[in-house]
Specification:
By secondary structure, this protein is mostly helical. The protein has 3 helices and no strands. It is elongated. This is ATP synthase protein I.
């Protein structure tokens, strides 16, 4: 029986500190590779699943176009899921305030 108070090699050797699940990037890294693989998986998985559904409906109904519509629907759905999970955004704000836009607020005293 394991001792739950003992922290040894078998306890948390495979987990990084601060990570809640395997494969999830910690706060110190940007997770670009993991995010890219997640986007790829969502899109390819959607294409495969919805193409198979379309193929089955084509077989049942004797048509030939539903498999293509299923592939397109799967690609759009995979991109939508990755966008909703925040994986496709390339903009990162530093801090809570985005960069200011428009004319300066100093009254033009720095103009030459």
């Amino acid at each position: 029986m394991r001792n739950p108070k003992k922290r040894g090699a078998a306890g948390n050797s495979n987990r990084a500190h601060g990570s809640s699940a395997p494969g999830v990037a910690s706060e110190n890294t940007d997770g670009g590779y993991n995010a890219g693989m997640a986007v790829f998986s969502y899109i390819i998985g959607g294409i495969i699943v919805w193409s198979l559904i379309g193929w089955g409906l084509d077989f049942l109904w004797g048509t030939r176009w539903i498999v293509l519509a299923g592939a397109l629907l799967g690609a759009v759905g995979g991109f939508y899921l990755s966008h909703m999970h925040g994986l496709t955004s390339s903009r990162k704000n530093t801090g809570d305030r985005p960069a200011a836009g428009g004319p300066s607020q100093d009254g033009g005293t720095n103009a030459k």
